[in-house]
UniProtKB/TrEMBL annotation:
GO terms for cellular component: chloroplast; mitochondrion. Keywords: ATP-binding, Nucleotide-binding. Belongs to the AFG1 ATPase family. It comes from Anisodus acutangulus. This is AFG1-like ATPase. Pfam families: AFG1_ATPase. SUPFAM superfamilies: P-loop containing nucleoside triphosphate hydrolases (SSF52540). It comes from the Eukaryota. GO terms for molecular function: ATP binding; ATP hydrolysis activity.
Length: 444
């Protein structure tokens, strides 16, 4: 505590506006009030890095052009046009931060704690990486026909948000891999500052991916513009929640069970087929939906060519998804496993609720999914271990093998009392926005 106590009670004043003392001060406050557990040296070390970044940003806010009310009048597309006439490179005087580590070590919580302490007037954005890339693709489509649409998109993003906080940085798609290098080279040149969380170290991003040699310059740029910090905690804080498994049912032929619980959630409303608009005019068909709840079979939501855009669109309209028949994953349904991982990420990001019937526990669902390293350490075939003992459904896939731990952890947390209480709070705020605004006005 002594190494952290020096920050207690600190507040800063910037242009006459008083702000909090930063993420380390807020962390101490939450520990003192029993909101967080104390004693994780790895988290404290990371917080000191976040505090360093916070202090540097406060000190150099003007040089970094963070305050949106003090930025140049030549905003948006006009600044991009000026940059075409007078090309210039103006990287930020402050380096960002790339946090990586195992699942449940508090990366997202620490980044959110940092983000929430920043002044509201700053050009900042906190967004899930999936959502960020969907936004990039949507902007590229909008500027189709421009000589260099990626440069225009980078200009727009950096004008709106000079400080980007991206959660769950994970590159699995060759299209994204090819875009990232040029996009971030331009963003950093425009002065953007990146704070990111990931399960993977920079050097392991997009490992063994198609055309990875074209992605490698991005890794070098990332390491140049960000301080890289590993959170080495062995504690999965999500599994410390009081898991109840109230919405997670294991077994086969549980159609009547999920439909009974689905009807309980929708109450007196009559479920009917619906459709949801997603990006670029596409529509997602919902088999049954009512009262903010949607019912799908696993095949309808994860065995069809759907992606993050469809799932984000779904949760703009629904707060609960009932999913019937989640199978054990392996080589035969690897693509569906990827979609399920993405679906769980989107549910978790939206603090939505998942009601599901499955063929096994979260761990059992992914027991056939292994990384290359895991596969290399498996027992070799011997005279006593013949071919008939091989698991022919074993799926050796690095990205999925790393992502599965996050998914297992999140499925566990999503069925805990604490998570379901958070879901209820988020839902209440959405359903009663006027009351929340009135409460905030009274507090102010």
């Amino acid at each position: 505590m002594s190494s952290r106590a020096m920050f207690a009670g600190v507040a800063t004043v910037n242009n006459g506006v008083e702000m909090g003392g930063g993420p380390l001060v807020e962390y101490e406050r939450r520990i003192a009030e029993g909101e967080l557990l104390d004693g994780d040296a790895c988290q404290v070390g990371t917080l000191q890095e976040l505090q360093r970044l916070y202090d540097q940003l406060i000190e150099k806010a003007e040089d970094c052009r963070l305050d949106k009310y003090a930025s140049s009048d030549k905003a948006g597309r006009s600044r991009w046009l000026w940059s075409r006439i007078l090309p210039q490179s103006s990287c930020a005087p402050v380096k960002g931060l790339y946090l990586y580590g195992g699942v449940g070590t508090g990366k997202t919580m620490l980044m959110d704690l940092f983000f929430d302490q920043l002044p509201a007037s700053w050009r900042k954005k906190r967004i899930h990486f999936h959502d960020f890339m969907l936004n990039v693709h949507s902007r590229l489509q909008k500027h189709k026909g421009v000589a260099d649409p990626l440069e225009v998109v980078a200009g727009e993003i950096s004008d709106e948000s000079i400080l980007l906080c991206l959660d769950e940085f994970m590159v699995t798609d060759v299209a994204n891999a090819l875009i990232l290098n040029r996009l971030f080279r331009q963003l950093f040149s425009n002065g953007a500052i990146l704070v990111a969380t990931s399960n993977r170290a920079p050097d392991n991003l997009y490992e063994r991916g198609l055309q990875r040699d074209l992605f490698l310059p991005f890794i070098a740029t990332l390491k140049e513009r960000c301080v890289v910090r590993e959170i080495g905690s062995a504690v999965d804080y999500r599994k410390l929640t009081s898991a109840e498994q109230g919405f997670y049912f294991i077994g086969k032929d549980l159609s009547s069970v999920i439909k009974k619980h689905f009807q309980m959630l929708v109450g007196d409303a009559q479920p009917v087929p619906q459709e949801v608009e997603v990006v670029m005019g596409r529509k997602l068909q919902v088999p049954l939906g009512a009262n903010g709840c949607a019912l799908f079979s696993f095949e309808e939501l994860c065995d069809r060519p759907l992606g993050a855009a469809d799932y984000f669109g779904l949760f703009k309209k629904f707060h609960t998804v009932a999913l019937e028949g989640v199978p054990i994953f392996g080589l035969h349904n690897k693509t569906a496993a990827y979609r399920f991982v993405t679906l769980v990420d989107v549910i978790y990001e939206n603090r939505a609720r998942l009601l599901c019937t499955t063929e096994g526990t979260p761990v059992e669902l992914f027991e056939n999914i292994v990384t290359i390293s895991d596969a290399q350490h498996m027992a070799p075939r011997t005279s006593s271990r013949s071919r008939k003992n091989d698991n022919f459904d074993l799926c050796v896939d690095n990205e999925l093998g790393f992502a599965k731990d996050r998914t297992i952890s999140r499925l566990t947390e999503m069925n805990s009392r604490e998570y379901l209480e958070q879901h209820a709070e988020v839902l209440a705020k959405k359903q009663h926005p006027a009351e929340n605004r009135a409460e905030n006005a009274v507090e102010a």
